[in-house]
Amino acid sequence: MTQHTSRLCKGYLSKKETDGVLHQMTWPPQSPNLTPIELDHRVKEKQPTRAQHIRELLQDRWKIIPGEAG
User: Fold this and answer.
1) Which of 3, 25, 26, 37 would suit a FRET pair with 14, their CA atoms being 20 to 30 Å apart?
2) Is 35 within 8 Å of 24 (Cβ atoms)?
3) Could you report the per-residue pLDDT of 1-11, keeping only the tens digit for each?
4) Is the pTM higher than 0.70?
5) Is 15 a domain residue?
Protein backbone atom coordinates (compact mmCIF):
# COMPACT_ATOMS: atom_id res chain seq x y z
CA MET A 1 0.00 0.00 0.00
CA THR A 2 1.13 3.51 -0.61
CA GLN A 3 1.81 6.04 2.11
CA HIS A 4 -1.40 7.83 1.11
CA THR A 5 -3.71 4.88 1.79
CA SER A 6 -6.00 5.36 4.78
CA ARG A 7 -6.04 2.94 7.72
CA LEU A 8 -9.75 2.33 7.11
CA CYS A 9 -9.07 1.34 3.51
CA LYS A 10 -6.11 -0.86 4.50
CA GLY A 11 -8.24 -2.65 7.09
CA TYR A 12 -11.08 -3.23 4.64
CA LEU A 13 -8.76 -4.57 1.94
CA SER A 14 -6.87 -6.78 4.40
CA LYS A 15 -10.16 -8.33 5.56
CA LYS A 16 -11.26 -8.96 1.96
CA GLU A 17 -7.89 -10.59 1.21
CA THR A 18 -8.15 -12.76 4.34
CA ASP A 19 -11.69 -13.76 3.30
CA GLY A 20 -10.35 -14.79 -0.12
CA VAL A 21 -12.45 -12.20 -1.96
CA LEU A 22 -9.47 -10.45 -3.52
CA HIS A 23 -5.74 -10.73 -3.96
CA GLN A 24 -3.49 -7.72 -3.56
CA MET A 25 -1.21 -7.19 -6.56
CA THR A 26 2.38 -6.14 -6.15
CA TRP A 27 2.34 -2.64 -7.58
CA PRO A 28 5.73 -1.30 -8.64
CA PRO A 29 6.04 2.42 -7.94
CA GLN A 30 5.91 4.74 -10.94
CA SER A 31 5.25 1.89 -13.39
CA PRO A 32 3.99 3.21 -16.74
CA ASN A 33 2.61 -0.27 -17.46
CA LEU A 34 0.05 0.06 -14.68
CA THR A 35 -1.57 3.38 -15.42
CA PRO A 36 -5.32 3.02 -15.96
CA ILE A 37 -5.07 4.98 -19.20
CA GLU A 38 -2.33 2.73 -20.60
CA LEU A 39 -4.23 -0.40 -19.57
CA ASP A 40 -7.39 0.98 -21.20
CA HIS A 41 -5.51 1.64 -24.45
CA ARG A 42 -4.03 -1.87 -24.47
CA VAL A 43 -7.43 -3.50 -23.94
CA LYS A 44 -9.17 -1.33 -26.53
CA GLU A 45 -6.53 -2.27 -29.14
CA LYS A 46 -8.24 -5.67 -29.25
CA GLN A 47 -11.73 -4.11 -29.60
CA PRO A 48 -13.56 -6.31 -27.07
CA THR A 49 -17.28 -6.76 -27.68
CA ARG A 50 -18.56 -8.35 -24.48
CA ALA A 51 -17.87 -8.09 -20.76
CA GLN A 52 -16.26 -11.54 -20.46
CA HIS A 53 -13.90 -10.75 -23.33
CA ILE A 54 -12.90 -7.49 -21.63
CA ARG A 55 -12.23 -9.41 -18.41
CA GLU A 56 -10.08 -11.96 -20.27
CA LEU A 57 -8.11 -9.19 -21.98
CA LEU A 58 -7.50 -7.42 -18.67
CA GLN A 59 -6.30 -10.64 -17.06
CA ASP A 60 -3.95 -11.27 -20.01
CA ARG A 61 -2.54 -7.74 -19.72
CA TRP A 62 -2.09 -8.06 -15.94
CA LYS A 63 -0.07 -11.26 -16.43
CA ILE A 64 2.55 -9.47 -18.53
CA ILE A 65 3.07 -6.59 -16.07
CA PRO A 66 6.49 -6.88 -14.39
CA GLY A 67 6.25 -7.88 -10.72
CA GLU A 68 8.72 -5.58 -9.01
CA ALA A 69 10.25 -2.39 -10.27
CA GLY A 70 13.84 -2.31 -9.64
Assistant:
1) 37
2) no
3) 555 668 888 88
4) no
5) no
